[in-house]
Amino acid sequence: MVAGHEESMTSALRVAIIGASGYTSLELLRWLLRHPQAQIAMLVSRKPEQPISEIFPELLGRIELPITPFEPAAIAGQADLVFLCVPHATAMSYVPPLLAAGVRVIDLSADYRLKDAGVYESWYRHAHSDRENLIHAVYGLPDLCAAEIAAAKLVANPGCYPTSAILPLAPLIKAGLIGPQDIIVNSGSGISGAGRNPSAQHHFPERNEAFEAYSIGAHRHAPEMAQALAAFGGRAVDIVFVPHLVPMDRGILSTIYVKPTVAGPVDRALQAWRAAYGQSPFVRIRSSPLPSTKYVLNTNYIDMAICSYGRRWVITSALDNMVKGAAGQAIENMNLMAGYPQGMGLDAKGQK
Amino acid sequence: MVAGHEESMTSALRVAIIGASGYTSLELLRWLLRHPQAQIAMLVSRKPEQPISEIFPELLGRIELPITPFEPAAIAGQADLVFLCVPHATAMSYVPPLLAAGVRVIDLSADYRLKDAGVYESWYRHAHSDRENLIHAVYGLPDLCAAEIAAAKLVANPGCYPTSAILPLAPLIKAGLIGPQDIIVNSGSGISGAGRNPSAQHHFPERNEAFEAYSIGAHRHAPEMAQALAAFGGRAVDIVFVPHLVPMDRGILSTIYVKPTVAGPVDRALQAWRAAYGQSPFVRIRSSPLPSTKYVLNTNYIDMAICSYGRRWVITSALDNMVKGAAGQAIENMNLMAGYPQGMGLDAKGQK
Amino acid sequence: MVAGHEESMTSALRVAIIGASGYTSLELLRWLLRHPQAQIAMLVSRKPEQPISEIFPELLGRIELPITPFEPAAIAGQADLVFLCVPHATAMSYVPPLLAAGVRVIDLSADYRLKDAGVYESWYRHAHSDRENLIHAVYGLPDLCAAEIAAAKLVANPGCYPTSAILPLAPLIKAGLIGPQDIIVNSGSGISGAGRNPSAQHHFPERNEAFEAYSIGAHRHAPEMAQALAAFGGRAVDIVFVPHLVPMDRGILSTIYVKPTVAGPVDRALQAWRAAYGQSPFVRIRSSPLPSTKYVLNTNYIDMAICSYGRRWVITSALDNMVKGAAGQAIENMNLMAGYPQGMGLDAKGQK
Amino acid sequence: MVAGHEESMTSALRVAIIGASGYTSLELLRWLLRHPQAQIAMLVSRKPEQPISEIFPELLGRIELPITPFEPAAIAGQADLVFLCVPHATAMSYVPPLLAAGVRVIDLSADYRLKDAGVYESWYRHAHSDRENLIHAVYGLPDLCAAEIAAAKLVANPGCYPTSAILPLAPLIKAGLIGPQDIIVNSGSGISGAGRNPSAQHHFPERNEAFEAYSIGAHRHAPEMAQALAAFGGRAVDIVFVPHLVPMDRGILSTIYVKPTVAGPVDRALQAWRAAYGQSPFVRIRSSPLPSTKYVLNTNYIDMAICSYGRRWVITSALDNMVKGAAGQAIENMNLMAGYPQGMGLDAKGQK
To answer: What angle, 0 to 180 degrees and rounded to 10, lies between the N-to-C axes of helices A221-233 and A117-124?
Structure first.
């Protein structure tokens, strides 16, 4: 027994968070503090003077680790795996030294999501400085490519909106049940998705009691959805994606309008979902009640439903943008990379 | 002077509200108390014991009228025009005696919106008992049919979601700029749209921090949109309408996906809108920022914008479901019926 | 008739707003656009390039006035009265040239509220540069000192929290019904009270679903309450004031714990209130239901109630911080200064 | 190892929830599903037809236990400990048969909180039918009386407001640092505290954007506070308690005004708190920033701070009413009764 206990201690996974002062970091910490194997070894930020509990008063008494500056060698000495929570463009300058130092990286920015650097550059408006690692980065959707993730040195953690669209759509496209053209993804998100930096747009009295669309035709998650659906579904797709701001903290609901290629009810779609996600620890298929952000709040679940409506099928999917849409999915990726069960420490299905 | 004063008193429009204890009544009262010509003559409800300021504590000291029971002759003796705020099915039993007694009626229920009684019966699941008046009822969209409204004895005040979809779509369909097929109307509404009766679904802790679709393929505003667009646009249309609940009090934002029949940018759509609504006191066309429920909150305005996105045009429209979506539009109808300017008492454009 | 009409046209009051880009200005504009006599003659801000409807998209189509820079002579040429909505410290540099140019001023900042410049300087941490006008400034609580306001050249518009505390307390102190010691004012405010500048503290995801006290013992409205209660109540008072942030847009509720000097129920307190405010167009005394910010939302009313509890009396008062707590009360002051009825254009009691 | 694993299985604590369809039950389930030792053995409700995931769609796929009717013998056969989540008055009829059957009970209703049946009867307006067990019931504040709880057969889980007031006040009263007279407890709560039954008062559009006091002088948590402070502090106290409704889901902030008996700053109060709670797994003492419901949201922590203000000390305390104010504290009690560490499964301080 004693030996077994020591063994589990030595096999613990030492992780670092770089860019520790943002909302994604806070959410990672909440879950990692509860994870049976992960050990939070290091917190890195440009504000190294403060303890993490001054940055996040929520954490007072829960974690006392000091903030340290970004030094790849020091990080590699203390951590086996890094969660990179810095903004895009910064991430691609941090990844090469980290990989070179031998640390595995889960990048929560957008820098390694788009495999085509040209597409990246046209949407993000700056050059991609790390095309070499871009080639080997694995898009981290654990429900669709667990094996690649397990073997990866660098995982690009998916965007929140793309996760909500790709998971329901990929199996249907792959099975040829829906056409790849004229897919409409209408999404709404809680405001935490905009990050922690204050702005006029996200000032409380501007956002409260307000519902509106934004970035129509210009949101960077659109090419990410298109790329992933082409990859996982096997066909080029044509997507119209319109995001909305919803006056709440967390949650994404996507309402997706597709054209079935088969007649009759949605049974075959449900079969395709069950075949794809029957073993998935966090995908839940619903009929009634329909998915709601409330049912997945503070969890790593994604709920999905599908109905027939005239010549369309209408899919709704719900997830918590900070968990399945960011930190939770990153921990799923960590679990796979470390050889743990995918759902470890994340309140997976049938845990009891 | 004295004579003039008396004259303006006698020319005042005496109005009654039947079904005075719901949210629509409260909103009517807020605006009518401020209207320069309307005189609130009578409040009718099944709860005649209470003063209105006990039903609506907001109104303490502002209006002291007692609640009275429903008696058509008494109403006709004291009011020139009635706002009917009772539930559907009840409304159609109240309208015949009111019209027979010589009062003009603006019905805020759904009973006289669908011209085809068979369509009504299949969506509302009960027989239509007043087909005679149904034939003569005018659908009360003042921006599209002011003359018919002015002459009407019975106006069917439009639904909140339909107003948000019909106003932007009708001119585009009529001008042939968009196809009538595969129109997708994705809407979100504040919770006041569900009315004042408490329910498990609209209990605060269920609705707060929740965003979700409901009644997919089953919402009664879908046939209302289809009928009005066929009438005002001149062609049968095929609409997929999905409403959502947004955690806020008021406001509807509709995001509408249409297929242009013309190439190029959205200029011709904007021209069609300007031609249709240039003189409209409450229609505003926006480009940047996009429409938001916040910009129309507590006003009678409807804001609309249109963008090109791939092979689609994307329209967003915003209104306050209690004002332009209900009470405010009803007062526009009242103004037209009484021969007043359409925007009187409603903070119309260019008022100062 | 014609003469009378012309007279009322010529007698219209021309007003300017200086500091036109903040929330108080927006609220002033909403009410002034509807006011039967006020004419919005000029909008002044440091951002003179933009039209006001770009600063406030709510106002599109409603007012087209250009923004102009601050030039006292030009303002005096076009306006009879100015609403000064600039921050404290700035206000005291604008007032002297405006008064010198012959314009009357309603200052919505704190610069002329505290009659003792030393008290001002210790709380606001900078020197008072206009002690001369400070002497003559009138504290603008129209329900307590209408005559002084009517004659004033410079009115200091009260703070939002002080209005909620002074109005219920002053008559009770003056009548000797409560002791001046150990008065506890526990207030909560919607976030619009924090102004329009974005900050980390008022970022939506920080403020939503959060309730907390702030500035305990350090809020600048505490000395304002103490001064006004001493002035209107006739005795020095000892107040503990603790404000809280409530996750909503608008509204202040103050819960005030006082010590009665008389035995028995609260009847004598109610009598004192009725004697003080029987003719007041916006003060409402309630018993059940208790005051709620919801009942005064978007109105100029202040609701108040009083209960006995052990050895204490507990008062609750509610107002909308943007209306009775700022712009609405400023318009009451304007009305008095111009010789109009105090409640003109503000949906006063018994208007119909 | 295998033997060890089996041993830990047999030593698991089997628990039942009676009254499984309310918010407290949902919160218990969320935490118990994650608890390393508790095994959810039985769910009891008057609605035995439905699976729990139909009552709480959040739980789909997470727990499949059927709902069963209330049968004491069956419960005793399957569970070692019961969480009783039924309304007051019902609870006192369930407790005797459960204790007789040999199950230990944590009652989350108010039935066993007030030790004096007469006080109970005057506040709850019905007779107490189980005075025998009332004598032996232990008030379950684990931070103040862990040993009694560990040995108890029946624990009365404290109310949410009382927890927020008793924990900061008890050590100060006991140490004689504050006077027992004229203690003012001003609290605000999220709406989940009102339970899951819909009502007009808690209908979303009534509660959203509303802040108000309620039940002044009439809230049943006032005698509970007084009793516990007399018991833990050793002196009769005189409390004025005013609760408020805050438009958010969860959280209580109490702002407490006390009179120090000692001069000078609050150091001695802080010392008393540290002495009382230094080993407490969930009590956190803060200075800046002040406690906020946001910092304890979805956690079992209670945060407290104290400031000096004139002749008063002002305490603020924050907790999540569903966790430290209900289900979380109940699980602390369960842990103590089962001999586990007090903070097991609750994300206690210094867990990693």
So the answer is: 160
Interface pTM, i.e. ipTM = 0.95
Burial D224-254 (b: 16+ CB within 10 A, else e): bbbbbbeebbeeebebbbbbbbbbbbbbbbb
The string of pLDDT tens digits covering residues A27-85 is 999 999 999 999 999 999 987 778 999 999 999 999 989 899 999 999 999 999 999 99
Give the angle C251-C257-C262 at the CA atoms, nearest 5°: 130
Domain assignment present for B152: no
Q: Which residues of D touch A284 (CB under 8 A)?
A: 60-61
pLDDT at residue D350 is higher than 90: no
CB contacts of C253 in chain D (<8 Å) are 211-213, 244
Is C145 among the residues known to form the active site?
Answer: no
Place of tokens 């559907």: B88
Do the chains contact at B208 and D23, CB–CB below 8 Å?
Answer: no
Query: Is residue C145 in some structural domain?
Result: no
Chain center to CA of D84 = 12
CB contact under 8 A, B60 and C347: no
Touching subunits of B (3+ CB pairs, under 8 Å) are: A, C, D
* Residues in chain C, pLDDT under 50: 1-9
Instruction: Check B85, B145, B160, B307 and give the catalytic one.
Output: B160
Residues B165 and B238 in one domain: yes
How many residue pairs bridge chain B and chain C with CB atoms within 8 Å of each other? 68
C87: CB partners within 8 A, 6+ apart: C19, C109
Residues of D in contact with A51 (CB under 8 A): none
**Domain that residue C15 falls in:** 2-136
Give the total residue count for chain B: 352
Residue B9 has pLDDT above 70, yes or no: no
The domain spanning residue A205 has which CATH number? 3.30.360.10
- pTM, two decimal places: 0.96
Number of domains making up chain A:
2
Q: Which residues of C touch A21 (CB under 8 A)?
A: none
Tell me: pLDDT of B3 over 60.
no
Give tens-digit pLDDT for B118-165: 999 999 999 999 999 999 999 999 999 999 999 999 999 999 999 999
pLDDT digits (tens, 9 = 90+) for A302-337: 999 999 999 999 999 999 999 999 999 999 999 999
Q: Which residues of A touch C (CB under 8 A)?
A: 23, 190-192, 194, 196-200, 202-205, 207-209, 247-249
Q: Compare all CA atoms of chain C with the CA of D250 and give the residue at the minimum distance.
A: C209
C33, C322, C352: best to mutate for the B interface, most B CBs within 10 A: C352
pLDDT tens figures, D109-168: 999 999 999 999 999 999 999 999 999 999 999 999 999 999 999 999 999 999 999 999
My answer on whether A113 and A185 are in the same domain is no
* Cα three-residue angle C310-C314-C316, rounded to 5 degrees: 160
Q: Which residue of C has its CA nearest to A210?
A: C249
Are D129 and D196 in a shared domain?
no
Residues contacting residue B6 through CB under 8 Å, at least 6 positions apart: none
Statement to judge: residues B202 and B109 lie in one domain:
no
Secondary element (H or E) of residue C91: helix C91-100
Considering the domain architecture, whether residues B57 and B178 belong to the same structural domain is answered as no
Q: Is residue C337 part of a domain?
A: no
pLDDT tens string A216-231: 999 999 999 999 999 9
Tell which residue, A128, A120, A118, A76, has the closest CA to residue A98. A76
Examine residue B24 and state whether it is found in any structural domain, yes or no. Answer: yes
Q: Which of D203, C205, B203, B306 has its CA nearest to residue A246?
A: C205
Is B202 in Cβ contact with D196 (below 8 Å)? no
Q: What is the pLDDT of residue D6?
A: 39
The predicted structure's pLDDT at residue C129: 96
Q: Which chains have 3 or more CB–CB distances shorter than 8 Å to chain D?
A: A, B, C
- Candidates B26, B37, B60, B204, partner chain C, best to mutate (most C CBs within 10 A): B60
